[in-house]
Design a protein that fits this description.
about 475 residues, single chain, 7-stranded mixed sheet, FAD/NAD(P)-binding domain, about 20% strand, globular, alpha/beta, Guanine Nucleotide Dissociation Inhibitor, domain 1, 5-stranded parallel sheet, Polyamine Oxidase, Chain A, domain 2, 21 strands
Length: about 475
């Protein structure tokens, strides 16, 4: 059975270049990348069909009903930063931007409960965190000096030159102290890139600091959803259908090519453009050997490795966390987030959790509890009333130097467009990377330059422009 989408014939008044654009498109995958691509295509008059295997949208950034409690919980805590201009643009298009809660402060907590606060001060970017860094009690004087000197190097460097080495190599070449690496660089990099400093490509990690901390005062603002993640994408279905498109949930895809897809039910669905917006390991399995031979992007996916994340949902009989979130210094648990006003509900995140993801749930929970009780006095006598550990073994692609060398582009010889945080977006494995990839794929389908749909980054501060080189000094 073959189904083809027939778009209305162009009118005499349409320009030739507009008539040359595809008028129908199939997008395989209803995660952030697929949703972003679908919305932008629909806005430009393309009749979109979005196919998603699950019966809900959001991909890995979604929620589920916990069978133990019957409550909606997120698979893991997802964070957006002020520098994530394309993901925030997507939220505005979906009408859910007000569902994000913003914080300027980052709390660092040591064993015993000593807390350091980092937040923008009165100085302009890139020096707006300088005062907080100097007051941080979890770092020694030599650590702070090393970090300051390294930040200055980051301001001046072209990160693209360092895609072939790890961030650990880059840091040690700049005489970073062990304390600076373990207590400062590692927590930020592991949380942002889901890889340790000795695995992640230096170009990817440097990007986090250049874009997220140095270029603009508002870049490091941290936003978290006030609703289950699934509810951020509820409006996508209406947006697609208002423009004549279709959303088909529970529809798996067995095979795809540049002219259409074959669903797991055996139906052939055709359109003028096809966007594959599923994770890279699934994309590789959806194309035939002839496509792999002609389009090097798919064989490059054989180089892709993954890094797991473990999220632990905890409910206590009394408040244990008095701040909205915190970095735990020197602990296996890297971040904790308060999930209610009182602080009785806590979500703990362990990124790059290769070893922990192999453990039983009881062991995982015990380790997280040990970290919480070491750092927060209120957790020591609190009774745990419920818990749920969620392991995401394929949480993100691993942005290693090996994979960065072959990271696939949006378009290729097969004519299939790729979207997903693993494509060559210039960003780590983040929601921003996923949103950017969706916008880039939409631009490719529409035969536009990427900058026509991508949102620019936050304006670079005057002092930052004066100090930074490369693309920053040219903006």
């Amino acid at each position: 059975m073959t189904r083809r989408f027939d778009a209305p014939m162009p009118t005499e008044t349409e320009r030739p270049e507009r008539r040359s654009r595809p008028r129908t498109a199939i997008i395989v995958g209803g995660g952030i990348a697929g949703i972003a691509c679908a919305l932008r295509l629909a806005e430009h008059g393309v009749r979109v069909t979005l196919l998603e295997t699950r019966r809900k949208l959001g991909g890995r950034a979604t929620s589920f009903v916990d069978p133990r409690s019957g409550e909606w919980i997120d698979n893991c805590q997802h964070v957006v930063m002020g520098c994530c201009t394309n993901y925030l643009d997507l939220c505005r298009r979906l009408g859910v931007a007000e569902r994000l809660e913003w914080h300027d402060e980052i709390y660092w907590v040591e064993a015993g409960g000593r807390m350091s606060l980092m937040k923008p001060g009165s100085l302009p970017a890139p020096a707006h965190f300088a005062g907080s860094l100097m007051r941080a009690r979890f770092l020694g004087a030599r650590d702070k000096q090393a970090i300051t000197e390294c930040m200055f190097d980051m301001l001046r460097c072209d990160r693209a030159e360092y895609s072939g080495i790890t961030m650990g190599e880059w840091l040690r070449a700049r005489n970073q102290t062990q304390g600076a690496i373990e207590k400062f660089w590692s927590p930020v990099i592991v949380s942002a890139c889901n890889l340790g400093v000795d695995r992640v490509a230096a170009s990817v990690a440097i990007h986090v600091f250049q874009e997220g901390f140095l270029a603009s005062r508002g870049s490091a603002r941290m936003g978290v959803s006030r609703v289950p993640l699934l509810h951020l994408y509820d409006q996508a279905e209406d947006s697609i259908r208002r423009t004549g498109g279709e959303l088909r949930l529970g529809c798996g895809v067995e095979r795809l090519d540049a002219g259409g897809v074959v669903t797991t039910a055996g139906e052939r669905v055709e359109a003028e453009a096809v966007v594959c917006a599923v994770p890279g390991e699934r994309a590789r399995r959806m194309v035939d050997e002839a496509t792999i031979r002609c389009d090097a992007r798919f064989s490059a996916l054989d180089s892709m490795e993954h890094s797991p994340i473990v999220g632990v949902h905890l409910v206590f009989d009394r408040p244990v966390l008095g701040v909205h979130s915190a970095v735990l210094v020197g602990r296996e648990t890297q971040w904790v987030f308060r999930k209610d006003r009182e602080g009785t509900r806590v979500h703990a995140v362990i990124s790059a959790a290769d070893e922990l993801a192999r453990r039983e749930e009881s062991d995982i929970v015990a380790r997280v509890l040990s970290d919480l009780r070491a750092c927060f006095r209120g957790a020591r006598d609190a009774r745990l009333t419920s818990f749920r550990a969620v392991k995401e073994k394929l949480a993100t692609f691993a942005a290693t130097p090996r994979f960065e060398a072959v990271r696939p582009a949006t378009t290729g010889a097969s004519g299939i467009h790729l979207a997903g945080d693993y494509v060559r977006t210039g960003w780590p494995a983040t929601m921003e990377g996923a949103a950017r990839s969706g916008y880039m794929a939409a631009a490719a389908v529409l035969r536009l330059e990427e900058k026509a749909l991508l949102k620019p980054g936050l304006p670079c501060g005057r002092l930052a422009r004066a100090v930074m080189s490369g693309r920053y000094s040219k903006e």
